[in-house]
Amino acid sequence: MVTTTKQKVLFELLAHKGDWLSGDQLATDLAVSRESIWKAINALKKKAHQIESRKNLGYQYIETPFLDEDIVGYYMDKQLIDGMFVEKTVTSTQHLAKQYLTTHTVSKPVFFAAEAQSAGYGRRGRHFYSPATSGLYFTIVLPNTTDNWDQVGLLTTNMAVVIAQTLESFFPKETIDLKWVNDLFINNKKVGGIITEANVELESNSVSAFIMGVGLNLTTKDFPDELSDIAQSIDKSATLDRNLLLTTLIKNIIDTYYHGDFATLLTEYRRRSNVIGKHVTLKLGNQTIYGTAKQIASDGGLIIEDENGITKSFTSGEVIKTNVQ
């Protein structure tokens, strides 16, 4: 892949973030003309890269408010993935991933991220509010590496833990709870969700890959009226590098997928659970289960003791209500 002068200048500025680089220094280091540097800087500024210019000091990279494929590529370890796609506005990254799999076979993870989604969705097809510049919306395709379906049930729980831990490293003042099975919460309000779907090969009736979508409310200030009581951002006053957060999440997800300690992750999931010990209402198809959430099972299922004292483990369904006993 050919690297343009504009990309080379961007990468050089990122490599020296916080420092000043003179135009002459950049021209010398990149073996291009001083005029080429000037043109590249202006082109980057037109793409909303905030670069400060000062006489006798040169240039310093500040930030960009947008997801940027070049910056994501700069931070990303390309050996971990088969491909990456960073778009502006899409229907949903989950749709992009599914379309990709109709014409591609993956041997390594591939991910899709978007600045905004017009039809982002979670479990049961529920709409996920996805405004630009204040959230993170991405889908990662993970090639199936196991026929052990007990472990497959832990995929979402494992990823919920690593996503929560990664977010807390970027938002050190916050503590993230997990609502079984796929929602991230702060102060009893949802800040993010995960949806995991399987890509089934019809000829062999086997799962070739898992398609895991993640939607996160990072700094969103305003939510639609119907969401304002149930959703919030992690920290609406925070400033952070979303490109770095995206790549850190992707790297940590991939590392956990291939090398994670399932027992340790399950222990941490249980510790973060905001349903254990509470009266819950579980929606299971047309059935509604009422009872007390006793524990998260070893396969990631939710163990509920119902009103008759009968204990069962559920591997599907949605907790639609929780009450403290």
Textual characterization of the structure:
This protein has 325 residues and is α+β, with helices and mostly antiparallel strands. It has helices at 5-15, 23-30, 34-46, 69-75, 93-101, 149-152, 155-170, 242-259, 262-272, and strands spanning 50-54, 58-63, 83-90, 110-117, 135-143, 177-179, 183-186, 189-201, 206-217, 279-284, 287-296, 302-306, 311-314, 318-323. The strands form three sheets. It has a seven-stranded mixed β-sheet, with helices on both faces. Strands 13-12-11-10-14 form a five-stranded antiparallel β-sheet. The model has no long low-confidence stretch (mean pLDDT 92).
Short account of what is shown:
Biotin binds at residues 117, 190. The protein is built from nine helices and 14 strands.
Topology:
Layout: H1 5-15, H2 23-30, H3 34-46, E1 50-54, E2 58-63, H4 69-75, E3 83-90, H5 93-101, E4 110-117, E5 135-143, H6 149-152, H7 155-170, E6 177-179, E7 183-186, E8 189-201, E9 206-217, H8 242-259, H9 262-272, E10 279-284, E11 287-296, E12 302-306, E13 311-314, E14 318-323
Parallel strand pairs: 3-4
Antiparallel strand pairs: 1-2, 4-5, 5-9, 6-7, 7-8, 8-9, 10-11, 10-14, 11-12, 12-13
